[in-house]
Amino acid sequence: MTHPGQANDPLPPRVVDALRCSVCGTPVGLADRTLRCAERHSFDVAKQGYVNLLHARIPAGTADTAPMVAARVAFLESGVYQPLAEVLARLAATHAGDGLIVDAGAGTGYYLAHALEAAPKAAGLALDVSAIALRRAARAHERAGAAVWNLWEPWPVADDVASMVLNVFAPRNAAQFHRVLAPGGLLVVATPTAGHLRELGDLVLDVDERKDERLERTLREYFTRTSRIEVTNRVEFSPELIREVVDMGPTAHHLTDDRRARLEALASPVDVTTSFAVSVYRAVTE
Ligand SMILES: C[S@@+](CC[C@H](N)C(=O)[O-])C[C@H]1O[C@@H](n2cnc3c(N)ncnc32)[C@H](O)[C@@H]1O
Ligand SMILES: [Zn+2]
Predict the structure, then answer these.
(1) Whose CA is closest to 190, among 230, 234, 148, 222?
(2) For the segment 233-256, what is each residue's pLDDT rounded down to a tens digit?
(3) How far does the centroid of ligand 1 lie from the alpha carbon of residue 172, in Å?
(4) From the CA of 38, which ligand is nearest?
């Protein structure tokens, strides 16, 4: 779904309309590949098509790095997470309408591109702190735009602009989800379940269950869950695929020499469980 010819397109107009100046919060306009607000704060659109709205440093280790992004691209191209993409696309087809889908922590834009393909009148905004990942996301779909931002800070996005917020294995800022969603909008959160990749054992980190509970509590202040879809499959992972799934995640930084050696020595495929929960929420108050 990559459209290489569109690498130099500016941000789609509907995305520009939804963005706000990250310094003063006012609307921005696009001219000569620069976003500018009335106060003349300006942000250049990179030649790869994304705009960097950050003006503060982000903590080291927050953004996905180039090797992680390369591993993620190769892994996702294998199609093993496509069943999840299809569930998200079906939700977009029925709920995104002609609105904006904001993908919070979009990475390379893989899921956003599937959602936009299924919702032919919607536009998409990929937010992520990794500029390297957003080089891909900016080209992932012709109706998508991408902006570098730290999701833990108030988002440079207008109130009530999104018909859908997507959040796939990425930080969850419930207050901002709520603020940017239009009345009647849907929040769609995908998380791995406890059984996800269990056959890979200590090569991949355990889901931090308590952190997850805490996040659920914050979400519940703003949202009520209307459905939960579980997407579970058994897939044969080649040794290469296993190395990619490890290298695309945070585990890559924490592998002991012993685990790295085991990973490198893998020679035969392993049947692996992939298991995700897709939770759909509506705002408690709108
Ligand atoms: C596990 S990846 C998931 C990416 C994408 N949703 C996918 O599934 O392919 C987590 C993403 O969150 C981004 N991220 C982590 N912390 C962030 C933050 N504070 N603000 C914005 N993005 C963040 C990372 O750069 C990375 O792209
Ligand atoms: Zn401004």
Answers:
(1) 230
(2) 999 999 999 999 999 987 777 778
(3) 10
(4) 2
